[in-house]
Amino acid sequence: MLKYMLRTFIVFLVSYAHAGYNFYNIAPVPYQLDQVSFSNGSLQLTKNGEVKRGQGLFQALRDVGIENVQALEIINALRDEVEFSKLKVGDKLEAGFDTAHRLVSFSFSQNPAEKHILSLDPITHQWLYKFKEEHTHWYSRIIEGEIKQGETLQGTLLKQGFAPDVVNNIVSALTCKVNFRMNARVGDKFRALIKERFFNEQIIATKVLYTSYEGSRAGSHETFMYEDAEKGSTYNAHYTEDGQALIRAGLRYPLSRLHVRSNYGMRRHPVTGRRVMHRGVDLRGRTGTPVHAVASGKVVLATYNKYAGNKIAIRHRDGSTSYYFHLNKRKVRRGDYVRSYQVIGTVGSTGRVTGPHLHFGFKKPNGRWMNPLNKRMIATPKLTGERFIKLQEQIAQIKQKMIDLDISKNSNYLLAQIPNLPVAKPIKFYDIERLIASVTPEESTL
Question: Are 33 and 18 within 8 A, CB to CB?
Answer without folding.
Answer: yes
